[in-house]
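INTERNAL AUDIT FORM
Audit reference: QA-55
Scope: verify that the stored structure record matches its stored sequence.
Auditor: D.O.
Record contents follow.
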Amino acid sequence: MLPNKPVEVIDSLLYGKVDGLGVLKAAVAAIKKAAAN
């Protein structure tokens, strides 16, 4: 991570690069949350 860039910029670059992966991670997180309950 580059310390001279704002978090928003890093986030948008990251999400732009791994958009599909982000959706997948969100789904996995939702499943884990449901399983934990």
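Auditor finding: record pair retrieved intact. Residues 12 and 19 are 10 Å apart (CA to CA).
Action required: none
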